[in-house]
């Protein structure tokens, strides 16, 4: 049983809603929760990942909050690494696993807020559902792509979109975990999912995410990848998480 008390809230989505993502990143930081999103920056433009991090960093600068952030590097990063930055308030994890990092994102979080997105976002949501993480779906496209009442056909289309980005493989431990996750998905599986509009205030969305995280408890954890390089990343992450949880817990009760 984890001793962690502060929720890890993941923020997923495409580049279409950067303003919403920035506001959510700031709100998550002000609540003294832990923000999880992508760790890298695009060559051009901004995505939800960068915007969420920017919002949290702005809240840290302007409001003096801890703004704990987890970034998981994606497809372009080919080196296993772990960096602790910003006075130990931010950790960047590189596992050199390409788009399979979407599964890792789902494993690390306790709850996710997912803005409208493409196949990558759908894969992150699919893994969250398979692993029992609650999800707050934000934006109009989710009404069609993952409706409240789903037929088997609609569910299969959603899962196939996720598999286009993160296909089933058989190469290593992570592939086996991903295959197991897909096997857990089905239209009759129970899921903690709510739909909200883009104009829902960020404070309400984060409150909903916090409450959902409270229902499942601190379930987020690093996947068991036993090769030495990734085991070192997991060890460093666990130490960082314990330290930042203590700081955030003190801030939440102050």
TrEMBL record:
Domain of life: Bacteria
Pfam families: LDcluster4
InterPro entries in UniProt: LDcluster4
Name assigned to this protein: Uncharacterized protein
Lineage: Bacteria, Bacillati, Actinomycetota, Actinomycetes, Propionibacteriales
């Amino acid at each position: 049983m984890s001793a962690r008390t502060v929720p890890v809230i993941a923020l997923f989505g495409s580049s279409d809603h950067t303003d919403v993502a920035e506001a959510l990143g700031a709100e998550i930081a002000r609540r003294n929760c832990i923000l999880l999103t992508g760790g890298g920056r695009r060559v051009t433009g901004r995505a939800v990942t960068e915007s969420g991090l920017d919002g949290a960093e702005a809240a840290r600068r302007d409001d003096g909050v801890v703004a704990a952030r987890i970034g998981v590097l994606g497809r372009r990063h080919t080196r296993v690494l772990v960096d602790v930055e910003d006075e130990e308030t931010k950790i960047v994890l590189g596992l050199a696993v390409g788009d399979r990092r979407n599964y890792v994102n789902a494993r690390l979080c306790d709850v996710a807020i997912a803005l409208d997105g493409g196949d990558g976002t759908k894969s992150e949501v699919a893994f969250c559902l398979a692993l029992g993480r609650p999800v707050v779906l934000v934006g109009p496209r989710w009404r069609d792509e993952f409706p409240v009442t789903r037929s088997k056909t609609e569910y299969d289309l959603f899962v196939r979109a996720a598999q286009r980005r993160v296909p089933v493989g058989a190469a290593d431990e992570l592939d086996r975990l991903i295959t197991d996750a897909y096997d857990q998905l089905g239209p009759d599986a129970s899921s903690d999912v709510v739909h909200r509009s883009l104009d829902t205030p960020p404070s309400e969305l984060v409150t909903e995410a916090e409450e959902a995280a409270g229902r499942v408890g601190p379930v987020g954890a690093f996947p068991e990848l036993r090769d030495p390089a990734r085991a070192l990343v997991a060890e460093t992450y666990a130490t960082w998480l314990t330290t930042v949880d203590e700081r955030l817990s003190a801030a939440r009760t102050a």
